[in-house]
Amino acid sequence: MMRWDKKIKLLFLLPAVIWVLTLTIAPLFFSLYLSFTDVTREVIITGETLVPILDKEGKPKTRSDGTVRTKRIKDKELKIKYDWVGLKKYKRVVNDKEYQDAAKFTFIYVIVSVVIEIILGLFLAFLFNRRIYGRGFMRSLMILPIFATPFAIGFMFFTILFEVSGPLAWMGIPFLSNHHWAPFSVMLVDIWQWTPFCFLVFLAALQGIPEDLIEAATLDTKSAYKVWTSVILPLLQPIIVLVILLRIAESAKLYDYIASLTKGGPGTATQSVSFLVFNKAFKMNDFGYASAGSFLMLIAVMIVVMLFFTQLRKTYE
Amino acid sequence: MNRNQGSLLTSIYTIIALAITMIFFFPLWWSFSNSLRIPKETFTVTGVGVPFINFTPTLGNWQHQLSFPEAQLALTNSSVIAILSTLLAVVVGLPAAYALARFRFRFPPNKDITIWFISQRVLPPAAAVVPFFMIWNMLGIYDTKFSMILVQTTFIMPFVIVIVRQTFIDLPIELEEAAMVDGATHIGAFLKVAVPLSIPAIAAASLIMFTFAWNDYFFASVLTMKNFTLPIWAASDVGTRGIHFWFMAVKTMIAIVLPLILCLFAQRYIVRGLTLGAVKG
């Protein structure tokens, strides 16, 4: 650590802090305020103006008698009214069957996909940590999904899972049209995109374990199973916990896949909290409901993060 | 274990690994192959759709889609927003990364500041998007590239801070001290010594940030109307005259091809970046 004077320290740190404060904390407080209000957005027509009609070159069009052709344009003003309603919106959200279903779906989605991703990622990492041919090449192919545009991925899987004649149609599974199967199809997309991430992190962690440690353990116990459970898994544990945390936080945001793959359907079978909140805000114009709904979700995610907080703090020591 | 048994095992593991890799690669391959087929061959193609073997490839779909002014507008918008917000995030985030690596803050301590920066990645965008929508409307900058750049910069900044912070920590501090003994100022030591030595990490962080800004759909779908980005454009074709699988494939490819190529360059830093600096990789 350098002993530099205070002003320089702050000069380096403050721009980023101020930037993030203004653009995340301020909107969040505004959102908190909105969740206690009834917002009405009204377009009021205040008058009319006559505007000349322009042709392609930007000159006003004229009638045969030489007068300029005009059109009437209404002068509009957007009036936003905020009425304080206390906890009304929260009560509505909590009692709303649609919100409960969305929360339930999001919860199950997060648990199932994260568990499968972790297990599959661990398995793949163990596999790739052995001596195999063409490891670098296969590793590069494996990690391609991580950075693919999630929204476009939804479309991609729409083609893959197309039930009439898609490449998986021979399985005869109603991937997208059945309300029992559709949630799994969305999970499948998540698993496809994020298992490679878990795999990559675990592989990096495995390769960081000194080999003589494993050799010593192997000589000691002579059982590969014991080496895994008593040496390797404990060493990987902090990283596994961190990956679980990151994946929970990311996959709870679920929006892009369903926006392109199922649009929340069939019915509301794959409607996530984000998706519901988005629709409430921008299709039904209920900003109070949307803010209350997303705050409840924020609290849920925060609780999960807090559970891992001590571990997280150790990581950035 | 004798050598024969060893190489047999290696072969078996290779086959398993290859099979799994192929399964994961298949959707991308299918989409790519689909974009090269004429519409009626979308679902009639045999095998796994290898061009020239299973069907005669054509660039018709690509030409058709790229000829629209909307496509060009979306491409330009996406590029401008992603590039500028990445640059901004680097300019604002680098000094902060340096400060967190080199100076000690008492209150709050360094690790808590770092965690606070990271916590933005945890924030559900649904909670932030409504206020953004209303505030941008009030300020009259709704549906501009400028407002999109502001939003994207905020949410990608944690990447540069956590990735480069670790690189700065790993740099020997003596280099900067030597530069300062030679008369450089604090800022000079940072700009002329620390930054040039961290270029690979900064480049990798930039690629990752670019990708995240490029891939965003949630904010773009709310905060843009006429200045739409690539993912919004990709959604525009659905529902007008049924699903055009062949055009959908082209649009998917246009959206994802750049991130895929970039990510191969940033491979070494992906682990550190996406675990937000917690795993060095």
Radius of gyration of chain A: 28 Å
User: What's the level 1 CATH class of the largest domain in chain A?
Assistant: Mainly Alpha
- What's the helix count of chain B? 13
Computed over alpha carbons, the radius of gyration of chain B is 24 Å
Number of helices of chain A: 12
Oligomer classification: heterodimer
CATH architecture of the largest domain in chain A: Orthogonal Bundle
Mean pLDDT of chain A: 86
- Helix % of chain B is over 70%
Q: Gap between N and C termini of chain A, in Å?
A: 14 Å
How many domains make up the 3D coordinates of chain B?
2
Class of secondary structure makeup of chain B: mainly alpha
CATH topology category name of the largest domain in chain B: MetI-like fold
> In what range is the share of β-strand residues of chain B?
under 5%
Relative strand content of chain A: 5-15%
Question: Which word captures the global form of chain A?
Answer: extended
Going by CATH, the homologous superfamily of the largest domain in chain B would be MetI-like
How many domains would you count in the coordinates of chain A? 2
Would you list the SSEs of chain A in sequence order as H and E? HEEHHHHHHHHHHH
Helix content of chain A: 55-70%
- Biggest beta sheet summary of chain A: 2 strands, antiparallel
What does this structure look like?
- The complex is a heterodimer of chains A (317) and B (281).
- Chain A is mostly helical and 317 residues long.
- Chain A folds into two domains: 41-81, no CATH class; 89-315, MetI-like fold (Orthogonal Bundle).
- Chain A has twelve helices and two strands; from the N terminus they run H-E-E-H-H-H-H-H-H-H-H-H-H-H.
- Chain A has helices spanning 6-34, 88-95, 97-129, 135-143, 150-160, 182-207, 211-221, 224-251, 256-261, 273-282, 287-307, 309-315, and strands at residues 37-52, 70-84.
- Chain A has a two-stranded antiparallel ribbon with strand order 1-2.
- In chain A, helix 3 (97-129) packs antiparallel against helix 8 (224-251), helix 6 (182-207) crosses helix 8 and helix 7 (211-221) packs across helix 8 (224-251).
- The model of chain A has no long low-confidence stretch (mean pLDDT 86).
- Chain B folds into two domains: 3-58, no CATH class; 62-274, MetI-like (MetI-like fold), CATH 1.10.3720.10.
- Chain B has helices at residues 3-35, 60-66, 69-102, 110-122, 125-139, 145-170, 173-181, 186-197, 199-215, 218-223, 230-235, 245-265, 267-274.
- In chain B, helix 3 (69-102) runs parallel beside helix 6 (145-170).
- The mean pLDDT of chain B is 84.
- Classes of the chains: A mainly alpha (317), B mainly alpha (281).
- At the A-B interface, helix 1, helix 3, helix 4, helix 5 and helix 6 of A face helix 1, helix 3, helix 4, helix 5 and helix 6 of B.
